[in-house]
Specification:
The chain has 302 residues and is of the alpha/beta class. The chain has a single domain (5-76, 85-276), classed as 2-enoyl-CoA Hydratase, Chain A, domain 1, CATH 3.90.226.10. Helices cover 44% and strands 13% of the residues. The chain is built from twelve helices and nine strands. The strands form two sheets. It has a six-stranded mixed sheet, sandwiched between helices. It has a three-stranded mixed sheet with strand order 5-7-8. The longest helix has 17 residues, at 216-232. The protein is globular.
């Protein structure tokens, strides 16, 4: 039984909806497992031409559910309480956990049929990990994209940024954790298109309508042709290395300080203290970044 997503098939498309709106669809391991299973079900269904990945409520996905990640384990059908299983204590255990979760996410890239991310509200941290693995991202113009955990928790466990925006913008955004709007994401190529939020669903559904006119086997050929080119540019190896580098990130002084702060003050207070140093936490794509004393961008300048 699906617990954290909704899945429906109609009119030649599958809709996978992240369904934890009270948590802004924060990604748990269970949710990633369910997304993976739904993707392969859609890929196996001859009546499905494309998949729409979207979020319930006001946000697409606000990141990984860090409150659950430390203790959550998905037992296999063969699990036994008499066995000792991996935790996050050793470097290899941490890497194994990173790679396991990454395998679930990479189903978006590996499935034969095209997947469209429909992004509203927050698309932060882990939300960008799944959105940027999709074949096309269509966003509300006021959506918010960024990876704030890169400020203290570790590096990105998936990294498709460079293949969308090139090295300079990839570095500008992931080295600071600053955010940009959906409109700005379109300007640098992070998303295919940004539209007013009232048109977002219509824009995505109309694209799915057009792909429903195409033989799904032909859609598969053309998707895989582009993805093979990405693989030749190192995209798959980059994802594997991203997981390994994230383990290094988990062992920095900044990450140690983060864990200590969470233990003493809790997640909310830790995030608030971290992000307060960055003002509004925004980058500006066009025009100078003139900031006030509170670190917030000024909308006008001389």
């Amino acid at each position: 039984m699906l617990q954290e997503i909704q899945f429906e098939v109609t009119d030649g498309r599958a809709r996978i909806t992240l369904n934890r709106p009270e948590k802004r669809n924060a990604l748990s391991l269970r949710m990633q497992v369910e997304i993976c299973e739904a993707l392969w079900e859609a890929d196996n269904d001859k009546g499905v031409h494309s998949v729409i990945l979207r979020g319930a409520g006001i946000s697409f996905c606000a990141g990984y559910d860090l409150a659950r990640y430390g203790s959550e384990m998905e037992p296999s059908a063969m699990a036994s309480p008499e066995r000792a299983y991996r935790t996050h204590r050793s470097l290899d255990d941490d890497l194994w956990q990173q790679e396991r979760a990454q395998r679930f996410r990479m189903s978006i890239f590996d499935m034969h049929k095209p997947c469209i991310a429909q992004v509203q509200g927050h698309c932060l941290g882990g939300g960008t990990d799944i959105a940027l693995l999709c074949d096309m991202v269509i966003a509300a113009d006021d959506a918010v994209f960024g990876f704030p955990p890169a400020r203290d928790l570790g590096s990105l466990p998936n990294n498709m940024w460079i293949y969308h925006v090139g090295p300079q913008w990839a570095k500008r955004l992931t080295l600071t954790g600053d955010t940009i709007t959906g409109t700005e994401a379109q300007q640098i190529g992070l998303v295919l298109k940004a539209v007013p939020s009232r048109y977002l669903e219509q824009e995505v559904e109309q694209l799915a309508d057009r792909m429903a006119l195409i033989d799904p086997d032909l859609l598969s050929v053309n998707k895989r042709s582009v993805n093979i080119a990405l693989e030749l540019m190192g995209a798959r190896t980059t994802q594997r290395l991203a997981a390994e580098l994230n383990v290094r990130g988990h062992n920095t002084q900044a990450a140690n300080d983060y864990r200590r702060s969470v233990k003493e003050k809790g997640l909310k207070a830790t995030f608030a203290a971290r992000d307060a140093q960055f003002g509004d936490g925004r980058a500006r794509v066009k025009g100078p970044e003139i900031r006030g004393g509170d670190g917030r961008l000024k909308e006008t300048w001389d």
